[in-house]
């Protein structure tokens, strides 16, 4: 009954932590493609190929349902995977839709036509590849009209977080926020479009100033996954053991993950 959680590196651990709290009886297999991280500077074809390989590895662990806890993979690969590659008995879900549904105050599965919403000015902070894909704007357009999105590619932030350099990560976040505010001085909401960014949520909020609602993904994805599995329990795969897998150096990744999550995390070689 295992569910797979995939990320290019350590950012997806923020999502894993939330889904494990929400669904404590479900085993989760986490796979970090640390050998090829970060994805945010790769081409769409590279991201597609690497994501497909990772998902196949999670299928081998008995995970028929895989969560792409990586905004770059969700933005650059998910639609293509679902349309051209995914077998009918498997499911791969991304992390954009739950966030957009929360932003637009629409219920899960609400397929009614797009409509006016209260939030008109949205700041999106994401990796360069996610910004270039315009996947967030595309998904938003299915649900809302009249929303102005200003996207800021946050180069360097993921690398700094993965390397444990919080001082550099904080400085980069403040710089990226200031760059966006020069183009959109008064956003009503800010979307942290990378699963690494919740670790910097306080810095984003402070730099944006009061009155800007900051949307982060982990808890929203957890609630959506719980709802999905309640409706589709057959998608719980045959796996029974929770594991942490990495394509990188397991010891080094374990050390960084332990620092990242502030609790012991032990990875195995994928």
Automatic annotation (TrEMBL):
Catalytic activity: L-glutamate = D-glutamate
Record keyword Nucleotide-binding present: no
Record-level Gene Ontology MF annotations: glutamate racemase activity
Pfam family, one: Asp_Glu_race
GO biological process, one term: cell wall organization
Annotated pathway: Cell wall biogenesis; peptidoglycan biosynthesis
Keywords: Cell shape, Cell wall biogenesis/degradation, Isomerase, Peptidoglycan synthesis
Stated family: Belongs to the aspartate/glutamate racemases family.
Protein name: Glutamate racemase
Organism, scientific name: Fertoeibacter niger
Gene: murI
């Amino acid at each position: 009954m295992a569910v797979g959680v995939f990320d290019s590196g350590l950012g997806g651990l923020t999502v894993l932590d939330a889904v494990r709290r929400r669904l404590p009886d479900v085993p989760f297999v986490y796979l970090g493609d640390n050998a090829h991280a970060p994805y945010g500077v790769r081409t769409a074809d590279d991201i597609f190929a690497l994501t497909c390989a990772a998902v196949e590895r999670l299928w081998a662990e008995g995970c028929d349902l895989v969560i792409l806890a990586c905004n770059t993979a969700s933005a650059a690969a998910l639609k293509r995977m679902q349309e051209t590659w995914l077998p009918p008995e498997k499911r791969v879900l991304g992390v954009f839709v739950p966030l957009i549904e929360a932003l637009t105050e629409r219920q899960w599965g609400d397929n009614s036509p797009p409509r006016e919403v209260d939030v008109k000015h949205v700041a999106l902070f994401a990796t360069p590849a996610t910004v270039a894909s315009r996947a967030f704007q595309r998904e938003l357009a299915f649900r809302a009209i009249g929303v102005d999105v200003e996207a800021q590619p946050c180069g360097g932030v993921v690398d700094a977080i993965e390397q444990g350099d919080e001082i550099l990560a904080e400085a980069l976040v403040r710089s990226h926020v200031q760059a966006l505010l020069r183009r959109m001085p008064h956003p009503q909401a800010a979307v942290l479009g990378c699963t690494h960014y919740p670790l910097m949520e306080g810095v984003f909020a402070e730099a944006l100033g009061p009155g800007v609602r900051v949307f982060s993904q982990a808890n929203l994805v957890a609630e959506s996954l719980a709802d999905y599995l309640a409706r589709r329990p057959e998608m719980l795969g045959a796996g029974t053991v929770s594991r942490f897998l990495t394509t990188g150096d397991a010891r080094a990744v374990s050390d960084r993950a332990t620092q990242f999550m502030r609790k012991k995390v032990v990875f195995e070689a994928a």
